[in-house]
User: Which sequence fits this backbone?
């Protein structure tokens, strides 16, 4: 909350610009997201050192003014941010042009081709736990591939074997329950 309050006037200004467009405002991930026919177009937020406007399909924007960045190179595929550090940096005409173009991108239905990420082998400790428990293995196999990958990464990022084993014990009930490790963050309809 403190991060957002630091940029209160700036965020209100961005919101006033966004509200001029024929977009539907929804709350997603705790933020206002502006959508067109159910598709995410643009959002904004305040952070510690900057406030930002982001375009969900920003990869397709021409970026005439060279203001967009990929905040997580190697992870983020389509989203692009426009960062600001003062209210004086907000140029309504430029922002409006980017929003108009972003709406056109949604109208045209542009999407990046979904590239399947390379499958990651489960850590030895997880493979062993799955091979010892047929019920757990069946439940794991029934999870969405993205959930399986989340569990594999969660276990694999632990450096020590004892930590990996402790994490496996923690996730067993979740796997048996058919939920992904991050499902509690996702709003289920």
Assistant:
């Amino acid at each position: 909350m403190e991060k957002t309050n630091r940029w209160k006037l700036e965020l209100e200004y961005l919101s006033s610009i966004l509200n001029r467009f024929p977009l539907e405002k929804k709350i997603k991930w705790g933020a206002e997201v502006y959508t067109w026919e159910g598709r995410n177009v643009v959002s904004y937020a305040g952070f510690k050192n900057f406030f930002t406007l982001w375009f969900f399909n920003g990869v397709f924007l021409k970026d005439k003014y060279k203001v967009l960045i990929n905040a997580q190179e190697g992870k983020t595929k389509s989203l692009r941010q426009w960062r600001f550090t003062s209210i004086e940096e907000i140029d309504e005409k430029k922002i409006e042009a980017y929003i108009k173009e972003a709406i056109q991108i949604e109208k045209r239905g542009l999407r990046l081709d979904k590239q399947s990420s390379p499958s990651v082998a489960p850590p030895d400790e997880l493979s062993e736990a799955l091979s010892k428990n047929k019920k757990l293995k069946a439940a794991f196999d029934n999870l969405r591939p993205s959930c399986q990958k989340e569990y594999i990464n969660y276990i694999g990022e632990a450096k020590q074997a004892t930590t990996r084993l402790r994490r496996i014990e923690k996730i067993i009930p979740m796997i048996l329950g058919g939920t992904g490790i991050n499902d509690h963050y996702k709003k289920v309809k």
Summary: The two ends are 26 Å apart (CA to CA). The domain at 2-108 is CATH 3.90.1150.200 (Aspartate Aminotransferase, domain 1). The helical segments are 2-6, 8-18, 92-108, 124-132, 134-142, 145-156, 161-176. The chain has seven helices and six strands.
